[in-house]
Amino acid sequence: MNLETTGSALNEDNSHFFYTRADQPATVETVDALVDQYAGTQVKVLLFSPNSMRTSYGSRVWDPIWRGYDPEGPDDQPLLESLDPDRRAGARRWIHTAWAFDRAGIDVYARWIERCRTHGIAPWLSMRMNDIHAVDDVRSFMHSEFWREHPEYRRVPYRFTGWADRAFDYGHEAVRDYHFRLIEELAERYDFDGLELDWMRFGFHFRPGHEAEGAELLTAFTDRTRRLLDHWESRRGHRIRLGARVPSRPATALGLGMDAVTWARKGLIDWLVVTPFWATAEPDMPVELWRELLRGTGVKLCAGLELLLRPCPEVKPQTNSLETVRGAAVSLLYRGADRIYLFNYMDAQTTLDEPDEYPRLLREIGEPAAMAKEPRRHVLTFSDTWAVGEPRAAALPAEVTKGGWQAFRLHIGPKPERGAAWVVLAFDPAGDVEGAAVAVRLNGELCGAAEPVELDKPRPEAPAWRYRIPLDALHAGYNVVELQAPSELTVTWAELTIA
Asked: Distance between alpha carbon 331 and the CA centroid of its chain, in Å?
């Protein structure tokens, strides 16, 4: 139960800065300002992603994002012509800005690393190990020539049913060597505190049915990386840590070829981020199980929080609010995570809906005692990443028969000492059941009568109802919500709100 001040980690992706600073001068002041906003906040580690399939710096071993770009050419130049016309100008912001900094002689990643150290923030690089954005468009400006020229290296060459089919297959030695060359360049070029291998961009690295042998290959690859960093440690004169991002549940991670527990037990990694992929934040990750599996390794366990939130795969995602982030963060830290890791929580473009909430998030997330005193929401979501053929589970939507019962389990972290708490539910309007007709219990104790409630975002599409919880009925950790309905209905949203 971690209630100590831990600080947070934040991932700056490979394109956000360049998209959002396209109208600013290509100067060191523009670069420094990105880091400066995190000084004095709970952000203790900044991770900068230098690549997708291409790099956002002038790489010698991979294609930079501006390869094939004509800065004087039109928006429909060959590099961009496969895009819809209304997307070309936006893509060009990324390409041109990265190109302009390079031409100005400014290596933004080297500058960010230096600037982090002036503020006492640990600078890391986060390498995306298999980024497959936009692979439905083979001609996209984002793709490397290596990927385009070698369809035989794709994970599922015999079909295309989704982006993951066109990921690189790490079963090929040529694929592993190609990616290792970028690691070698990053280690030589940049003096970082740590390198993260981001296996969750996009999480599928082997042919279906070959994940077990793939796990051995990724362990060997991780060992090779660790030995390279050991060499650079002696050159740099300081510890260089190695981290990894993997799926939220151990069985799924292993089923996809990511044997993170073996990496930890072999002493290959220093920290591990367990996380959903993208579709929703996952407040109910099995942190306790991961801690037990990592016992004695000394590996720091980070709980990854995605920006989006939704209760089930069928509905449109919404952006987390500060209150839902608080709820997830305080719960995950209470369960034993060493640090919260924020992914897609950048200062613009992909960020919280309310601009004034972002500075508050930076000051709060990573300070459990402070978060526990503020309003927080604990929303029931689902796991969005599964190994091939693994049964998928989601608690919602949930059917309730006439006169029948349904139950949900939500983790809240520490029990509040004072204040108020509610069960919040929403039902499919097609069931034509008013919330007032539904009886709700928490941990066996009857809750108050239903009250209609207008939730701030994120919120259900249907009207929401809240039921006051007797505060003594709340437990630290997991709480069980039970409900009984007078007729058939479908539950589409469930949360515990603490104020």
From this structure: 17
Phi and psi dihedrals of 92, rounded to 5? -65, -30
Asked whether residue 186 falls in the same domain as residue 270, the answer is yes
Residue pair 406/398 in contact (Cβ under 8 Å)? The answer is yes
Residue 248 covered by a domain: yes
Q: How confident is the model at residue 2 (pLDDT cuts 50, 70, 90)?
A: very low
How high is the mean pLDDT of the chain?
96
420: amino acid identity, one letter? A
Please tell me the predicted confidence (pLDDT) of residue 3.
Answer: 46
In a domain, 387, yes or no: no
Q: Which amino acid does the sequence have at 166?
A: R
Above 90 in pLDDT, residue 432?
no
Domain boundary at 315, 342, 374, which? 374
Q: Are residues 229 and 337 in the same domain?
A: yes
Q: For helices 322-334 and 357-364, give the axis angle rounded to 10 degrees.
A: 10
End of a domain among 374, 407, 426? 374
pLDDT at 60: 98
Q: With helix as H, strand as E and coil as C, how does 310-375 read?
A: CCCCCCCCEECCHHHHHHHHHHHHHCCCCEEEEECCCCCCCCCCCCCHHHHHHHHCCCHHHHHCCC
How much is the pLDDT for 202?
97
Which residue from 406, 345, 354 is spatially nearest to 380, judged by alpha carbons?
Answer: 406
Q: 419 near 448, Cβ under 8 Å?
A: no
Residues 207 and 242 reside in one and the same domain: yes
| pLDDT value for 5 | 61
CATH number at residue 166: 3.20.20.80
Q: For residue 490, what is the domain's CATH number? A: 2.60.120.1200
pTM over cut 0.90: yes
Whether 43 contacts 7, CB under 8 Å: yes
Together in a domain, 45 and 167: yes
177 belongs to a structural domain: yes
CA angle 85, 167, 50 (to 5 degrees): 70
Q: Which tokens go with 419?
A: 């204040």
What average pLDDT does the segment 66-73 reach?
Answer: 98
Q: Is residue 392 part of a domain?
A: no
Backbone angles phi, psi at 124, to 5 degrees: -125, 160
Tokens of 80: 């961009």
User: Given CA atoms 278, 204, 131, 34 in this order, what sign does their dihedral have?
Assistant: positive
pLDDT(257) > 90: yes
Q: Which domain holds residue 311?
A: 8-374
Cβ(71)–Cβ(96) under 8 Å? yes
